[in-house]
Design goal:
binds iron/sulfur cluster, Cobalt-precorrin-4 Transmethylase, domain 1, about 35% helix, Rossmann fold, 3 domains, alpha/beta, about 325 residues
């Protein structure tokens, strides 16, 4: 059976994810195992399992890290999603050696929220409750000075005291279109609200969504490779559904494909979230080739050439 696959580009790894994974790999190379990582370095099981196999130990909180028996400080790495200020403070108080793998584009949002707070603004953060990035951004300023909104209804319900000055910032991995609606509602209710200097939704999120938006109307079905807890992957699924392709599937590996789901599908869109490695995309294409006469068309909307520096402490590799 023939199957046309429209491969959305850009897709998969972004510069922030690539940098975070390199930080863990370089730390393992330089300091040896174990290297501790607070939270999944990026939201992808394959990546986490691969690093675990090399000696990374994943923990959710710093107090899970055992005190060093030999006095040799083991590095602890903070994930790409960013952490509240209390985490590096806690690490310093425990005299831990930490390396921050927060994506520079998340750090940019942190600094912006801090700057607005220092200038006397109350912060409205658009994002998803409970996501580590949101917890990290909220944790840059004192509790009670940042209000989280997730929906248009939240904007309607906002109660702001008379005379308060407002600024907003957003999670980096939101839906571009849904966020534009929320921002418009905020501006309508609070005309003086300050906005970020540059969009907080990052280039990788924006480009992957634009690519999916381009291919979706041509597809009978669309697959996104990514983890269920990956915000940007979930947004790609929504973007496909909102732009003419109602049949969507989020999957982590080829083994999760329900083949009956592909019955009657002639044109399949394929994309991957920013934390999904190429090897998983290749695996899915290979699995499709095992069942169909696959013809691939890559639909590219832009080229990416973003690269982030790694922290100085890891620049010199182990001798
Ligand atoms: S998705 Fe965007 S913000 Fe998140 S790690 Fe990648 S580049 Fe950074």
């Amino acid at each position: 059976m023939p199957l046309q696959v429209l491969l959305a580009a850009p897709r998969g790894f972004c510069a922030g994810v690539d940098r975070a994974i390199r930080i863990v790999e370089l730390a393992l190379e330089k300091y040896g195992a174990p290297v501790y990582v607070r939270h999944e370095i990026v939201h992808n099981k394959y990546v986490v399992d691969s690093l675990r196999a090399k000696g990374a130990v994943f923990v959710e909180e710093l107090d899970e890290i055992p005190p060093d028996a030999d006095g040799d400080k083991r590095p602890v790495i903070f994930s790409a999603h960013g952490v509240p200020k209390s985490v590096p403070e806690d690490a310093a108080a425990r005299e831990m050696f930490y390396v921050d793998a927060t994506c520079p584009l998340v750090s940019k949002v942190h600094r912006e929220a801090e700057r607005h707070y220092a200038q006397g603004y109350k912060i409205v953060l658009i994002g998803h409750a409970g996501h580590p990035e949101v917890i990290g951004t909220m944790g840059q300023i004192p509790e009670g000075e940042v209000i989280l909104v997730e929906t248009l209804a939240d904007v309607e319900r906002l109660k702001i005291e008379e005379g308060a000055r407002l600024a907003y910032c957003t999670q980096t991995t939101l839906s571009v279109e849904d966020t534009a609606d929320i921002v418009a509602a905020l501006k309508a209710r609070f005309p003086g609200i300050q906005e970020p200097h540059k969009d907080d939704i990052c280039y990788a999120t924006t480009n992957r969504q634009a690519a999916v938006k381009t291919v979706a109307p041509r597809c009978d079905a669309l697959m996104v490779i990514g983890a269920p807890n990956s915000s940007n992957s979930n947004r790609l699924v929504e973007v496909a559904a909102q732009n003419g392709c109602a049949k969507t599937m989020l999957l982590q590996r080829a083994g999760e494909i329900e083949w009956s789901w592909l019955e009657g599908v002639n044109v399949l869109g394929l994309s991957a979230g920013a934390s999904a490695p190429d090897v998983l995309i290749d695996e899915v294409i290979e699995a499709l080739r095992g069942r169909f006469a696959v013809e691939i068309e890559e639909v590219s909307i832009t080229q990416e050439d973003v690269n982030f520096k790694i922290p100085k402490v890891l620049e010199e590799r182990a001798a």
